[in-house]
From TrEMBL:
This is MFS transporter. It is found in: Cell membrane. It comes from Pseudonocardia aurantiaca. The chain crosses the membrane at residues 21-44, 64-83, 95-115, 121-146, 158-181, 201-221, 258-287, 293-311, 323-341, 347-369, 381-406, 412-431. Its main location: membrane. Residues 1-436 form the Major facilitator superfamily (MFS) profile domain. InterPro entries: Atg22-like, ATG22/LtaA_families, MFS_dom, MFS_trans_sf. The keyword Ubl conjugation does not apply. Keywords: Membrane, Transmembrane, Transmembrane helix, Transport. The keyword NAD does not apply. Pfam families: ATG22. It is a multi-pass membrane protein.
Length: 438
């Protein structure tokens, strides 16, 4: 569909002001509380290294965490497309984002009750798994709102601004909790550390952070209008029948949209693996201290935010495909160098260069799909975006394990990540780029 036709048929708010863009992006800023603090750097580490460190039996707490997140991914894959489809039809994108965001915050706050005892490991795993489901479903509807706060000519920079806000929010919150609660014994605030109280208190702070910064979007950004041809409310089975019918129709009308969903699933799995295994490899391969990993995370967020901001403008000038392809090539080249260098200094240099390309790849992947999406179907397509990403989410972690085992080396595990990124790049290469706005 050309730009003029898209603009004439789009039901969304046509020209959002800067206030709406800022309010929308503050959700990204607040969501760093879940991504950076709960899932990546703080609470998941507490759950596996402290709560489950004396877990009886042969299965480690790390394995149970993987099973929990994997089960959550399966449920997301089953739920996301239908829920996105329903939110589009009913004109309730913002409402759906609010419901799932609220549930995510509830699970984050619930982590306060996970004491430093292996008997509480199951509560922590349940809350993390549920939080992953709720957060991903919130992201489906939130990403669809992108088309309401941007125009075809500005969608790249708006998406990049949102990603940058997410990175910057992670920087601020990570530094705050590190200085206030972690450094030394209980941080500068002198918080008691017995029974994991300091880390459990961080979960409450993260929940409050997400709540405060999510609110502006729901106040400032209008709800999208319901579809004029809104169908009758369908059950789950009927919804999937309709979904598969829409997929066949989408493939006939725009096969390259389906091709992009497949290609992005591959390279996004590689991006997820960078976040999942980056800190582990930093410690085990390059000798980064456990405390320094958090500082590296702050620096990496700064670099990624700058990359996303710059790439957003490039996206609007040359299109998202050039940004994604260039970013993947940059990550592959840097990753190959990391395979052969050693020591903390080399990791800091080339690790930060690698993260420079991560933000642009994430941001422009989102705008790629938003530009391809037929008007009024954005939530459904972003549901498929989440589903396809989860469908192959086992690939990179499995290859990391395979190469680590084959070569008896943690360093060799990086080959698995690079291989997935390379396959994603090859799959994306023939996909037609979306039409550019004048």
């Amino acid at each position: 569909m050309n730009t003029a036709a898209r603009e004439s048929t789009d039901r969304s708010v046509p020209a959002a002001g800067r206030g709406q863009v800022l309010a929308w992006s503050l959700w990204d800023w607040g969501s760093a509380a879940y991504n950076a603090v709960i899932l990546t750097f703080v609470f998941s580490v507490y759950l596996t290294d402290q709560v489950g460190d004396d877990l009886p039996g042969d299965v480690s707490a790390n394995s149970w965490l993987g099973y929990s997140i994997g089960a959550a991914g399966l449920l997301i894959a089953l739920m996301a497309p239908v829920l996105g489809q329903r939110a589009d039809a009913a004109g309730r994108r913002k409402f759906a984002t609010g419901v799932w965001t609220a549930l995510t915050i509830v699970t984050m706050a619930g982590l306060f009750f996970v004491a430093d005892d292996w008997h509480y490991l199951w509560l922590g795993l349940l809350l993390l798994g549920a939080g992953s489901i709720f957060f991903e479903l919130a992201s489906v509807s939130y990403n669809a709102v992108l088309t309401q706060v941007s125009t075809p000519a500005t969608i790249g920079r708006v998406s990049g601004f949102g990603w940058a806000m997410g990175y910057l929010g992670g920087i601020v919150l990570l530094l705050a909790v590190y200085l206030g609660f972690v450094v030394g014994d209980g941080g500068l605030l002198g918080v008691p550390t017995e029974n994991g109280f300091d880390i459990r208190l961080i979960a409450l702070v993260a929940a409050a952070w997400f709540l405060v910064f999510a609110v502006p979007m729901f106040v400032v950004v209008p709800e999208v209008a319901a579809r004029i041809d809104q169908p009758a409310r369908l059950g789950v089975v009927a919804s999937y029948k309709a979904l598969f019918a829409d997929l066949r129709s989408l493939y006939r009308a725009s096969p390259h949209t389906v091709y992009f969903l497949g290609a992005s699933a591959l390279f996004r799995d590689g991006l997820a693996a960078i976040f999942t295994f980056g800190a582990v490899l930093a410690v085990t391969v390059y000798g980064i201290g456990a405390g320094d990993v958090l500082i590296f995370g702050v620096a990496a967020n700064i670099v990624s935010a700058l990359g996303a901001l710059v790439a957003g403008r490039i996206d609007d000038r040359v299109g998202p495909k050039a940004v994604v392809v260039g970013s993947l090539i940059g990550m592959l080249a840097t990753g190959v160098v990391l395979l052969f260098v050693s020591g903390p200094t080399m990791f800091w240099i080339f690790g930060l260069i690698l993260t420079l390309f991560v933000g642009p790849a994430q941001s422009s992947s989102r705008t790629y799909l938003a530009r391809l999406a037929p008007p009024g179907r954005e939530g459904q397509l972003f549901g498929l975006y989440a589903t396809t990403g989860r469908a192959v989410s086992f690939l990179a972690p499995t290859l990391v394990g395979v190469f680590t085992t084959l070569f008896a080396s943690d360093r060799a595990g990086m080959i698995g990540i690079l291989l997935v990124l390379a396959i994603g790049l090859v799959a994306l290469w023939p996909v037609r780029p979306p039409a550019r706005a004048a």
